[in-house]
């Protein structure tokens, strides 16, 4: 069965990582750029985890109380029975849970990510083949132009101006398409005069 790719704003939301080893570290490193508040519970944690700013460390074994108020949970220990216990408790409490290497006990899967600035591409094979996910990730990463993140930042900056200058939704959509196409042809963001030239052709304030 395919999984639907929800994209959620994790900034400021609290997640729990159960486990303090290499797998937990990998998940934490993937999550940190999205600015959640992360708690980690494990009797011992890797120095690399300790070195990550902003983590809340519970240097104890998992306790059910740690689930309180969590937006999501990742069970990443090397104890399969503990991971499944965490999964069962999360399901009872309707907390989204990912159990590493145990798809049947997950309510969400952790995708392979391609990230460049505000662009995020999530790749999921429904657990069928991590190798296929990595293969796809590498090819998607190769397709993304070098300055694509700068182009997205530029287009975001133009949104308020375009909304003021171009009142009709259809014309506004055409402006964004032309701005994007011009950025792709140039290989980066447009200069102010180049932007104004395009806006002038569509502006409804003339």
Text of the CATH class of the largest domain: Alpha Beta
Mean pLDDT: 93
Instruction: Please trace the helix and strand order, writing H or E for each element.
Output: EHEHEEHEEEHHHH
Distinct helical segment count: 7
Overall form:
elongated
Q: Number of folding domains?
A: 3
Named at the architecture level, the CATH assignment of the largest domain is 3-Layer(aba) Sandwich
CATH topology of the largest domain, by name, is: Rossmann fold
Alpha-beta classification:
alpha/beta
Helical amount among residues, as a percent range?
40-55%
Cross-sheet strand order for the largest sheet? 3-2-1-4-5
The CATH superfamily of the largest domain is known as NAD(P)-binding Rossmann-like Domain
Radius of gyration: 22 Å
Instruction: Write down how many β-strands occur, each being a DSSP E stretch of 2 or more residues.
Output: 7
Major pleated sheet: 5 strands, parallel
Contiguous uncertain segments of 5+ residues:
none
Strand content: 5-15%
Alpha-carbon distance between the two ends: 53 Å
């Amino acid at each position: 069965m395919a999984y639907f790719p929800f994209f959620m704003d994790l900034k400021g939301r609290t997640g729990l990582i159960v486990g303090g080893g290499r797998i937990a570290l990998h998940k934490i490193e993937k999550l940190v750029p999205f600015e959640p508040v992360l708690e980690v519970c494990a009797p011992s944690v890797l120095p690399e985890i300790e070195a990550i700013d902003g983590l809340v460390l519970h240097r104890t074994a998992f306790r059910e109380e740690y689930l309180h108020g969590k937006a999501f949970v990742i069970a990443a220990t090397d104890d399969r029975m503990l991971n499944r216990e965490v999964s069962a408790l999360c399901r009872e409490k309707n907390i989204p849970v990912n159990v590493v290497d145990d798809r049947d006990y997950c309510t969400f899967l952790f995708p392979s990510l391609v990230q460049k600035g505000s662009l995020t591409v999530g790749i999921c094979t429904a657990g069928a083949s991590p190798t296929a996910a990595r293969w796809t990730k590498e090819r998607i990463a190769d397709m993304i132009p070098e300055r694509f993140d700068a182009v997205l930042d530029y287009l975001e900056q133009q949104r308020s101006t375009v909304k003021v200058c171009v009142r009709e939704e259809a014309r506004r959509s055409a402006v964004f398409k032309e701005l994007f196409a011009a950025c792709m042809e140039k290989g980066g963001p447009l200069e102010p005069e180049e932007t104004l030239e395009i806006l002038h052709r569509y502006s409804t304030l003339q």
